[in-house]
Amino acid sequence: MVSLASLVHALGGRLVGHGECQVSRLAPIESADGVSLSFVSHPRYAARIATTQAAALIVSPALEAAASERGPCIVTDDPYLYFARLTQWWRARQRASIEPSIDATAQIHPSAHLGHGVTVAPFVVIEAGALVGDGVVLGAHTVVGANARIGANSRLAPRVTVGEDCQIGDRCVVHAGVVIGADGFGFALHQGRWVKIEQLGAVRIGHDVEIGANTCIDRGALDDTVIEDGVKLDNLIQIGHNVRIGAHTAMAGCVGVAGSATIGAHCTVGGGAVVLGHLQLADRVNISAASVVMRSITQPGHYSGIFPIDDNANWEKNAASLKQLSRLRQRLVALERALPTHSSQTEP
Questions:
Q1: 333 partner at 20 to 30 Å CA-CA among 57, 151, 250, 303?
Q2: CA angle in degrees (0–180, nearest 5) for 203-208-209
Q3: Which is it for the CA torsion 49, 55, 59, 64, positive or negative?
Q4: Which domains does the chain have, with CATH numbers?
Q5: Residues recognised as catalytic
Q6: Does the predicted TM-score (pTM) go above 0.85?
Q7: Number of helices and strands (H, E) in the chain?
Q8: pLDDT tens for residues 107-166?
């Protein structure tokens, strides 16, 4: 249990009502009970204030009157941001009770270096020359390759693989099944057979990056693949070799970025979208879900390339029409050329 007064002392905000009010969990407003703390981030949800069973609420100044009528509340300009920081504070309290340890089944090369307060779970492998920073947590069956670097206070979930020479910055979160530094997809065609191009680069990941489960980030062919500070990647994303992703860009699940693409800072890429290789996206470009980016985008903005869903019969008719567009365009151009120009026409 924690008091509202303690939360305000730790995170700020303005307390209205009894600071001694105790909460033991965070919950959505619909399912909150008498020991829950919840939040209301938008006026359109104001009607739920009167019906929720939450012990206390986090609200904006515009909703202070309604919230304070039913009980104590914390008032802040951005309730959603406050709630996000509250979840971090709450999780940190839970982890504080876990003592760092190194499991006896872990395999750690004598030349590897581990910082202070490192937690190494069962069956972790840390190879020669690897550097693991202070406060790092390595989940079970994680592999840290030779000469790899893991920054301070980063957390790697079970079954993460960090390839040789790859680097992860401070305070990163890498979820289960992630592979960092697999070979990029590089082959030369010779006499009908594919000849492998050895991938000699690595992967460099900045600080405060989060990488979702089963995402793969390939090492570069010559230069490194680079993920800059604050990037957030969802589950099941493929980042090809020599891709560069700018700071604080976010990508939703199942995005694919082909090799040597450069994506700017503060971009968003919706789920299932694809960015083709060697393209460049400017800063603050937003790509809609399921789009295919087939050309470079040089100006900030929201871009979409989605064929609208329809019932199958109509879709087949429209698809058949699309296949005729090039021929119809050629006929239209020919007709326009055959018509007399405005300047050559005689006045009536």
A1: 303
A2: 45
A3: positive
A4: 2-95 (3.40.1390.10), 107-303 (2.160.10.10)
A5: 241
A6: yes
A7: 5, 38
A8: 999 999 999 999 999 999 999 999 999 999 999 999 999 999 999 999 999 999 999 999
